Amino acid sequence: MKKLLYSAVTSLATLTIVGAVGCASATGSQPKPVEPIITGRSTATLWPIKTREHVDLWLHGFALLSNDSSQVPLFRTGHRDELTVLKNKANVLTQLDVNRDRLGSQLASSRLLINAQFVPFYFSSLEEMHATIDRFVQSNGSPGAGRSQTEAAQFAVLSSYFQSGADRTWLALFASSLWDEDAKFYHAYWVQQQRERANVIDSTTAMWQHLMRPRITRFLTNTQQRDGDILLSLPLAGEGRTLSASGGVRTSVAVAFPNRPSEVPQAMYVLAHELVGSVTNAAITDNTSPADQRSGLADRYASAASVRAGLMLLEKFVPELADGYARYYVAATGAVPNATPRVQLATLFPLPNAIRDAIARQIDTVDSGI
User: Fold this and answer.
1) How many structural domains comprise the chain?
2) Are both 212 and 138 inside the same structural domain?
3) Which residue pairs from 364-368 have beta carbons closer than 8 angstroms and sit at least 24 positions apart in sequence?
4) Residue 16: CB partners within 8 Å, gap ≥ 6?
5) Same domain, yes or no: 30 and 173
């Protein structure tokens, strides 16, 4: 689970810095994410299903550059190869293709740059993200160069991710390459996918709003996730991206975008995996020593804890999805699901008994409201 505290960007009043939760890198380690200053917004619709081109474009860029060795891949398996084939068929070569090796090499060597995949969640549109990043690059990251309170807050976020001159040089090349990728290829691809998957969005909304959300409303409320946005994201699969708002007012969760209506439960599986973050973090913190946390051992439990906790959540509240969830995450590792996928899942994602039992207790406690 990739997770970071988040509030979406608008022109409303700037919030204070909020605490952050660790997130997994492409190598399975647990670098600490930045603690951003950003702005908040509200909406009249609880937990709507949405899509966002700028989020997908940015994650697509990271998917093309990343060498993914995580047990649960950070991006959809085959995403890079499939889109490369489409570009070759269309005889399209972009600056992202030209600069891939250079950008990928620096990305692989930095524990901090990998967290910059969260950047698009701080912007409301591609146009805003494009303009703000370009001004940030031109000002060499100067925090006083923002043209408004909102832009100053956005500059602060970007400065947290791109702290050194080398990082900002990487950002300048990545961003210019990404804008070229969008203009020559990705925008048309993204629009086509939205058109072809319109019925998937409708089906996902129906399953979420009429099956899963009513069952876990108490859990959401008691974990300070009363409201939020769910983003169906083309580059993602079993490893979603979660950013939780200050005070639990809103949360944004990016999950896999199913290919067809029959695969809509996959989005529910990733949602379950993502929504248990506060539970798994508490269980790991309470059952590891300061030395474990300093050494990175506690971080290494995070991925397995998220997978196992997502299954526990569904077993308790939406049991008809539990076996499908287990099969999905077993398959995500490259294994073939067998006749007892929940047992197989436990074998593939082992946890110390103390952490496993603490997660179960946490879910029961949250449900009871204690």
Assistant:
1) 2
2) no
3) 364/316, 366/218, 366/219, 366/222, 366/223, 366/279, 367/218, 367/219, 367/222, 367/316
4) 37, 246
5) yes
48 assigned to some structural domain: no
Q: Which domain holds residue 321?
A: 201-368
Same domain for 362 and 287, yes or no, is yes
Tally helices (H) and strands (E) across the chain.
Answer: 18, 5
DSSP state of 264: T
6 lies in some domain? no
**pLDDT of the chain along its 370 residues, tens only?**
555 543 333 332 233 223 333 343 333 443 344 444 333 444 457 899 999 999 999 999 999 998 888 899 999 999 999 999 999 999 999 999 999 999 999 999 988 899 999 999 989 899 999 999 999 999 988 877 778 888 888 999 899 999 999 999 999 999 999 999 999 999 999 999 999 999 999 999 999 999 999 999 999 999 989 889 999 999 999 999 988 765 334 678 999 999 999 999 999 999 999 999 999 999 999 999 999 888 888 889 999 999 999 999 999 999 999 999 999 999 999 999 999 999 999 999 999 999 999 999 999 999 887 5
Q: What b/e sequence results for 264-297 when a residue is b if at least 16 CB atoms lie within 10 Å of its CB, and e otherwise? A: bbbbbbbbbbbbbbbbbbbbbeebbeeebeeeee
Contacts of 340 (CB under 8 A, 6+ apart): none
Spatial separation of the C-alpha atoms in residues 228 and 310, rounded to whole Å: 18
Do 353 and 223 have their domain in common?
Answer: yes
Are 254 and 262 spatial neighbours (Cβ–Cβ below 8 Å)?
no
Domain check: are 162 and 222 in the same one?
A: no
Instruction: Answer for the pair 243, 251: CB distance below 8 angstroms, yes or no.
Output: yes
Domain co-membership, 358 together with 237: yes
Judge if 34 and 159 occupy the same domain: yes
- Is 44 part of any domain? no
Final residue belonging to a domain, choices 160, 179, 196: 196
Whether this model's pTM surpasses 0.85: yes
160 Cβ neighbours under 8 A, 6+ residues apart: 34, 35, 36
Q: Are residues 260 and 182 in the same domain?
A: no
Mark which of 130, 165, 196 sits at the end of a domain.
Answer: 196
Classify residue 63: in a domain, yes or no.
yes
